[in-house]
Design a protein that fits this description.
The complex is a heterodimer of chains A (172) and B (265). Chain A is 76% helix and 0% strand. Chain B folds into 2 domains: 139 residues, Rod shape-determining protein MreC, domain 1 (Thrombin, subunit H, Beta Barrel), CATH 2.40.10; 77 residues, Thrombin, subunit H (Beta Barrel), CATH 2.40.10.350. The chains are: A mainly alpha (172), B alpha+beta (265). Chains A and B meet through helix 1, helix 2, helix 4 and helix 5 of A and helix 1 and helix 2 of B.
Chain lengths: 172, 265
């Protein structure tokens, strides 16, 4: 059990490393893929909640190092997303199906961006930052939802090819 | 079970708050510097590969009219370009550094040459991260130039071993400038939603022509005078308004930068 848990933690750390290497560096399409959220949902499915929290905090803080926004903002956004996703996972998405994984992925992107925008608005009001989302920001969210959907599908296929953690069929 | 979840959440929240406090106190600087130093070689490779690919695409493939006219020749050139890509990239980098060195030497500036490691992780700001920091004499507000002395941005944040550069195209970017026209019009160049930049609040009586060059005014203490920024592309003027706006065209594209120089006055 501990070994399996470690495997998913290592997968999550691998995705985090990939996220740090590509973020902001490979243009609009590549740079806005959010691998941290994919890793967060994998951990949410297979690991204890404290691993999810540790991952959210470390991933957020590492992203903050490379951010032009006030330090801690991305960590808070990821942490609050993880907390809300835990509540949703425990109460509504417990059947380990492809659809629950996919839906959780899509919700995670929407949730993360909603929290991120709320925090940006808050610090703008306080006067700590001059940034507000621009008109084209919705395209970034749509692209993140699309790319996360594809990555969740890929994660489902890869994890199911190695184990029977998820339900093996799409419908049923 | 529920108690464990609450405990984890509270500890996580506390960890973030402590990290934020440590960051602004400067105590996290060595750790942040070490993380950037470890990741920067791979990040820089990815960033440069993407920037070179983008430049290559912009210069060769998007000119479809030329491709149509010179299809056969273009194919040969492309094949050669692929064969010599690595050599050419090194030559270009060498030339660029030489030009930058000449520029700063002629003007007797102190300078720090830096490489761009990556873009930033957030989706709102137009910034890049460079591999030089406070230990190299870099501080907030210094001018950052590229390609023979063209201003591309300002240092927005300086850590011990790395810094963040706010590009001119960022919404938050403001630089005091002068237009090289008869009136020597002064004003501020502002970023335009990450796409371009413009000069606002220009009095209606100032005569500005398309193509006029825009340079730094030297009114900002940390930015030297006469650094080239852009040229005027068009002027938007409404008679009933007090001020007019000049839309500026960047001298070099800000998206494909890989090497820059920070000027220390």
């Amino acid at each position: 059990m501990a070994d399996k848990n470690n495997t998913y933690v290592f997968i999550a750390l691998g995705l985090l490393l990939a996220q740090l290497l590509i973020q902001g560096s490979i243009g609009f399409w590549g740079g806005r893929i959010n691998l941290s959220l994919v890793a967060l949902i994998i951990l949410l499915n297979f690991s204890e909640f404290h691993w999810v929290v540790i991952f959210a905090v470390i991933s957020g803080l590492l992203s903050d190092i490379y951010s032009g926004l006030p330090f801690g903002l991305m960590a808070f956004a990821l942490f609050f997303s993880a907390a809300v996703l835990k509540i949703l996972f425990d109460n509504f998405f417990t059947n380990f199906s492809y659809y629950s994984l996919l839906l959780l992925g899509i919700i995670s992107v929407s949730l993360y961006n909603a929290i991120f925008i709320a925090l940006i608005g808050l610090i703008y009001l306080i006067g700590l930052s001059d940034y507000l989302p621009k008109a084209g920001y919705s395209y970034k969210i749509l692209w993140q939802i699309f790319s996360t959907g594809i990555l969740m599908s890929l994660a489902y296929y890869l994890i199911n090819s190695r184990s029977r953690k998820f339900k093996p069929v799409f419908l049923g | 079970m529920f108690e464990k979840i609450i405990k984890s959440a509270v500890l996580g929240l506390a960890a973030i708050l402590i990290a934020v406090f440590f960051h602004y106190a400067g105590w996290l600087s060595p750790i942040e510097g070490a993380i950037v130093a470890i990741l920067s070689p791979i990040q820089r490779t990815i960033y440069s590969a993407y920037a070179n690919g983008q430049n290559f695409y912009g210069q060769w493939l998007r000119k479809s009219d030329l491709i149509a006219e010179n299809k056969k020749l273009q194919a040969e050139l492309t094949a050669q370009a692929i064969d010599t890509a690595k050599l050419k990239a090194l030559e270009e980098e060498n030339d660029l550094l030489k030009k930058e060195m000449n520029f700063v030497d002629e003007n007797k500036f102190k300078y720090v040459a830096a490489k761009i490691i990556s873009g930033v992780s957030d989706p709102l700001s137009q910034s890049v991260v460079i591999n030089r920091g406070r230990r190299d004499g870099i501080e907030k507000g210094l001018a950052v130039i590229a390609d023979n002395g063209v201003l591309v941005g300002k240092v927005s944040e300086a850590e011990d071993d790395f810094s963040k550069i706010l590009l001119l195209s960022d919404n938050k970017s403001r630089v005091a400038v002068t237009i090289q026209n008869l009136d020597h019009t002064v004003g501020l160049v502002e970023g335009q939603y990450g796409l371009s930049f413009s000069m606002t609040d220009i009095p209606q009586n100032q005569e500005i022509r398309d193509g006029d060059l825009v340079v730094t005014s030297g009114l900002e203490g940390k930015i030297p005078k006469d650094l080239l920024i852009a040229k005027v592309e068009s002027v938007r003027s409404v008679e009933s308004e007090i001020f007019k706006t000049a839309i500026l065209k960047p001298i070099i594209p800000l998206s494909g930068l890989s090497d820059v120089v920070v000027i220390i006055p």
